[in-house]
From TrEMBL:
It comes from Trifolium medium. It comes from the Eukaryota. This is Uncharacterized protein.
Length: 76
């Protein structure tokens, strides 16, 4: 009878551990999907950044070139 109770206890513990592991797998899969989506978003923003031409002139640049002689030059 004691062995049966131990076996039932082990079965309950196994079920608890299996449920916890299933939760872990689901959370891990969700995290993988979120990281993948974030990496795609970052790649899209990096591509957008590469294609945008920066035309903002800072105050320091205005002081260095007050008449705008170099305004048309590329910053690259």
């Amino acid at each position: 009878d004691a062995a049966r109770k131990k076996l039932e206890g082990a079965g309950l513990k196994y079920n608890e551990l299996k449920a916890a592991f299933d939760d872990y797998k689901n959370n891990y899969a969700l995290q993988v999907d979120l990281v993948k989506a974030r990496n795609e978003q970052i790649a899209g923003l990096e591509e957008k950044l590469r294609t945008i031409e920066v035309t903002t002139i800072t105050e320091e640049e205005k002081k260095m070139d007050p008449d705008g002689a170099y305004a048309g030059f590329s910053r690259v």
